[in-house]
Amino acid sequence: MWIRNLMLATLFLSASHVFAQGSESLPAGSSAFVLIARLHALPGQADKVVALSSAVDKKVEAGEPGMLLHTFDQDPRDPQGFVWTEVYENSDALIFHLNNADLAAYLEAVSPLLDVFTIELYGAVSDDAVAALSATETPVTHYANLLGYIRDLTP
After folding, report:
1. What are the residue ranges spanned by the domains of the chain?
2. What whole-number percentage of the chain has pLDDT above 90?
3. Of 15, 49, 119, 153, which has the fewest CB atoms closer than 10 Å, so is most exposed?
4. Which residue did the predictor score with more confidence, 1 or 92?
5. 97 and 88 in contact (C-beta within 8 Å)?
6. Which class is domain 30-144?
7. Which of these, 1, 5, 12, lies nearest to 151 by C-alpha position?
8. 137: Cβ–Cβ under 8 A, 6 or more apart, which residues?
9. What is the 3-state secondary structure (H, E, C) of 86-99?
10. pLDDT value at 10 more than 60
C-alpha cells in the first residue's frame, strides 16, 4: 500500500510548475488533479465489472498520455464496491478521456451491472472540464482547490 501511495504522490507532484502555498489556489485547467469514481456492482456482477475495467484500463494506458495514474481498487469492506483513482495532467486530459470511444463503450457495458456510480473531483479543474463531466449525467461532486502547490520534480 505504501508503494501505491508513493507512486500516487510522485505522479501527482511531477507537474512542470511550482505554485506557492498559502491562500493562493492553483490555476484552474493547467494543474494536475485527482478524480475518484466510486462503483458498486449489483449482486453477482463483480467479476464482470472487474473484467470490463481491466480491459478499459489497458486501452486508457495505451491511448491517454495525460492520464498519469489510473488504478482500480476493491473496497476492503464490500466485495461489490470498487474505486477508480485517476490523476490527470490537466483539464484537457480529462476532456480527452471523456471523448475516448473506449471509455464510452466501457460505460455502456458496465452501467447495467452497477447500482452506484459517482464521481468526485479534487483540485483546480477548468469549468469546461467540469461541464463536460457533468454532461455525462453521472453524479459529480467537485471539491474545488482553495490552496496548495504542485512541486516541480524535473531534473
Report:
1. 30-144
2. 71
3. 153
4. 92
5. yes
6. alpha beta
7. 12
8. none
9. EEECCHHHHHHHHC
10. no
Q: Would you call 72 exposed, middle or buried from its count of C-beta atoms within 10 A (0-12, 13-18, 19+)? A: middle
With cut-offs at 50, 70 and 90, classify the pLDDT of residue 148: confident
Place of cell 507532484: 13
Looking up cell 473496497 gives 75
pLDDT tens digits along 35-48: 999 999 999 999 99
Query: How confident is the model over 21-50, as a mean pLDDT?
Result: 86
CA dist., res. 67 & res. 51, Å (int): 20
Give dist(CA 116, CA 121) in Å, integer.
Answer: 17
Q: Cα(107)–Cα(91) distance, rounded to whole angstroms?
A: 20
By residue count, the chain amounts to 155
d(CA 68, CA 90): 10
Spatial CA neighbour of 40 closest among 110, 129, 103, 96: 110
The yes-or-no verdict on residue 64 having pLDDT over 60 is yes
- Alpha helices per DSSP H over 13-148: 46-63, 91-98, 101-110, 127-134
Identify any residues that bridge with 78 across adjacent strands, giving them in sequence order: none
